[in-house]
Amino acid sequence: MRGLGDHLSIGERIAFYRKLRGMTQEVLAGLVGRSTAWLEKAERGRRKPPSIDMLADLARCLRVPLGDLIGQPVLVEDEKQQDDVPAVRDALMSPRRLSRLLFGPEAEVQLPTPAPAATLVERAWGDYQGGRLGAVIAALPRLLQTAQELEDRAARGGEDRQACWAVSARTHHLASTTLAKIGESDISWLAAERAMRAADESDDPLVLASAARSGTHALLANGRYDDALELGEMTARWLTPRVSDDDPEALSLLGMIRLRAAVASARHRDRTTTTQLLAQAEDLAEQLGSGENYWQTCFGPTNVLLHRLAIELDLNNVAYVVEKGDISVDHMPHERSVTHRIDFARALSFVGRGDDAFQELRKADRTAPQLVRNNPKVRETLRDLVRQSPVTAGGRSSDVFKMAQQCRAVQ
Question: Does residue 250 contact residue 244 with C-beta atoms inside 8 Å?
Answer without folding.
Answer: yes
